[in-house]
Amino acid sequence: MLKLLVCIKQVPMVTELPWDAATGSLKRYMAEGMMNPACKHALEAAVQIKSLYGAHITVLSMGPPAAEEVLREALAMGADRGVLLTDPRMAGADTLITSHTLAMAIRKQCPDFDLILCGSCTSDSETAQVGPQIAEALDIAGAAYAAHIAIEGRTVQVQRECDDFLETLEMEMPALVTIATTGHHPRYASLPGLQNAFECGDIAVLDADAIGLEPGTSGMKASPTRILDVYTPTAGKTNVILKGAAPKMAQTLFERFGDRLSGAMAKDLKTHEHDDFHDESDDE
Amino acid sequence: MTKVTMNNDNRSIWVFGDYRNYFQNRVTLQLLARARELAPRIGAAVCAVIFGNHVDEYIREYIAHGAQTVYVCDHPRLKTYAVETFTTLTARLVMRYEPEIFLIGATDFGREFAPRAAKRLKTGLTADCVGLDINETGLLVQTAPSFGGNLIARIITPEARPQMATVRPGTFPERPHDDQATGQVIAIPFPEDIPCDRVRLVHSERKPPREQRIEDARIVICGGRGMGSRTKFKKLFEMARLMGAEVGATRPVVYSRWAEHDSLVGQAGKHVHPQVLFSFGVSGAIQHTAAIHDADLIIAVNKNPHAAIMKMADVAIVADASQFCSALIRELRKRIRE
Fold it and tell me: Which of A173, A194, B323, B335 can bridge A270 by disulfide, Cβ–Cβ 3.0-4.6 Å?
């Protein structure tokens, strides 16, 4: 039977991100977690492979203890086993060290994998780096941004969009493929499935020692990159608010922003009701 | 980790020559230009590195746009982009020449290739940068967005080398083409011991071009479910016709089939950077706003003054989206001089 491994990440529920207005930073501890959307697509791809060819699916996540929730959700969607790596010594890792940690765990927990699936990108840090770097760490074939994936014998075929090209790639297993959010529509976990996953799902919780991480090779300390500071780019934006009757506001819009509209349209616009009327108001 | 080599007096900044899709893809030229601005501050030379087959025209192009040295590996095995082969070649060259900084355009290929090269070299990589600078200690400060552009982080790589970053296309202006510019070309023989890529490209075709791509449009009109209905949504197409604009849609709109999937503007769809972006009846979920941040002027129309989109807009119009759209179309018809 095919052995699939899906890497998933818990990310803050981004539609309701709590900001600290004073520091301009994210109150991450207040944000509710969810499974990263692209990871969910990767899991869906795995579940579809399972129903087509038969497979055993391990889901692997690194994160705080609360990340166990997304692993249980993954079990409810059709995964067979969850592995959570959680250890303060792993915290704050950049992509180089994250991929090292995950690769170590894969070697320890699922060394006979056939195919690893990852989301192409996370919604929080958006690097898209961890998937390709796991492939590099394990020295296996890898392809990114798969929209469709098919398996024949030991061959994985991937269709993807890459820089204005539609490409079909093939490689032999073991391999790693990152899944784009275009080709798969993640199923909803059923309530009985969720209940079952939370009551008796098979989840292993492991720390750095359990996967054989050497001291000083994990977490922020081992990471080659350093974050100097973080800020919100929208702070200080001038914001014009218009209220009132629609026709009047449409007029106001042209009176105040007509120059920029006509520039973008490359058309000459009457920016004022009377052409010879001169208005001193400008864009800001 | 590779330590800084302080005694290296041949310091250099490398730019990866990403020539596929040239002329549309100009990110390599943009990076050469920025590298030339940064290089004097660390006493470095600017080098391009290019892997391919029959790439002489790109060598000339890179020199004309600021490359002082071009490392080129030209071989039939490099006829198409291949991530493993490019990674191996890069790693060997970097270990030999030890550049301080290595910049890669954040194209799809660049963002697949750069992480593998960084991993092989055991160095840091900052993704999709929107700014690059040199600080007082001579380190590369890499400015990168996260959370769909809602947060910006400044990142350094203090010790590992090279300092690597992928950089979003369009971030820096290119230098004017200089026919008189001269540069050194260093030919790298293709190492025959490099194994074949385990990933085989079995088919590749250019995506059929749209008439006008929404990514290139100077005006984009995005509609959300707040337009009310499929019929009302159609007004946006009329407005687009009058303005020469392109219509984009949010995910709920695409799911409701008021618009085609290829008009999806969002993290999973198109990123747009028009001069003017109109937003009608869009609440402003981060997956959508992430893709419109680069618009020069955002005009948002929403009944709810507290909608997230209204906070990021330059002009927030509190109104029913469909009604305001009708008013705007009437006003446009009056004002367009034929």
Answer: B335
Test A246 with B326 for CB contact under 8 angstroms. Answer: yes
The answer to whether the Cβ–Cβ distance between A226 and B156 falls below 8 Å is yes
Contact A249/B324, CB-based, under 8 Å?
yes
The predicted model scores a pTM of 0.80
- Number of structural domains chain B divides into: 2
Instruction: Show residues of chain B in contact with A123, CB under 8 Å.
Output: 147-148, 267, 286-287
ipTM above 0.85, yes or no: no
- CATH at A159: 3.40.50.620
A237/B314 Cβ within 8 A:
yes
Tokens of A68: 């166990």
In this structure, is residue B17 part of a structural domain?
Answer: yes
Q: What does the pLDDT look like over A219-269, one tens digit per residue?
A: 999 999 999 988 876 655 668 899 999 999 999 999 888 888 888 888 778
Any idea of the CA torsion for B285, B290, B293, B297, to the nearest 10 degrees? -40
> Domain check: are A103 and A44 in the same one?
yes
Domain boundary among B172, B187, B202: B187
Domain match, B30 and B175 both = yes
Q: For residues B303 and B166, state if they share a domain.
A: no
Residues B145 and B251 in one domain: no
**A chain contacts of residue B101, beta-carbon cutoff 8 Å:** none
Q: What is the mean pLDDT of residues B138-163?
A: 91
Pick from B315, B317, B310, B270: which is nearest to B294 by CA? B270
- For A80-215, strand residue ranges (E) read 81-85, 115-119, 141-152, 155-162, 165-172, 175-179, 203-206
The residue count of chain B comes to 338
Say if residue A170 is in the same domain as residue A274.
no
